[in-house]
Amino acid sequence: MQGLRLSVNNLACERGERRIFEGVSFTLKPGEALVITGRNGAGKSSLLDILAGRLHPAGGAILLDDAGERTLSECLHYVGHRDALKAALTAEENLTFARDFLGNPALKPREALDAVGLAHAARLPVAYLSAGQRRRVALARLLVAHRPLWLLDEPTSALDTASQETLRLILEGHRDSGGMIAASTHSPLFLKDAKEIRIERLVPPPSAGEGGERSEPGEGASSIEHGPSPDPRSREGHPLPNSSRVFPTWTSRKSGSGTPDPDGGEGKTGEVS
Description:
4-stranded mixed sheet; alpha/beta
């Protein structure tokens, strides 16, 4: 898995027949991290949902190379903004289930809980835990099964300062071992040399009857800014470019293979540099 590479090219998303974003392109290689930022509702969670296979894209290509026989979903961990824990089960039982279900085991549940500072709560039902403790149990799932790609939606939600630093060290350790990370966040993650995509809502152009022409499909969607993640402690505001008007066929493939597009046409594949 050391050569695993994820390439995303001109990805677009629609929710309820409304275009949320378009023109998203990036690559992730072993040891790299991508930070996804933007206002509420800009489409950060939707982007992660598409990568995780939970949401169908409206356009673009997702390419996975050098994964062998494994699909993208078999190569990733997904921790959403909801903790997805069984309240009646203990913290240890939740992690035991995840370890058995996901396969390719890594740390034992007790070891994973110790890594997030919750060894003392192993036998407590999750319902008894605070919001921050439940979040730490959810993040401990990352450690009980080997998956090279971690998709994280607001991973620092409900975490105190000490727990945020613990999370940062866990994320950097994953990168040091050749893992990849894509995380949406409103809070700084302080990941070294992380890439950044900022998804920002554009103001829709005036509609017909209000002194202007009616907008075309795709206008008023989110714009995408690419670049290395700056130090969030010194970030300044800056204008964003208009979104690219690209609506390609969606495909998802492993290295050397392609799939038909969801509408029945022949899918197009291409490498992303």
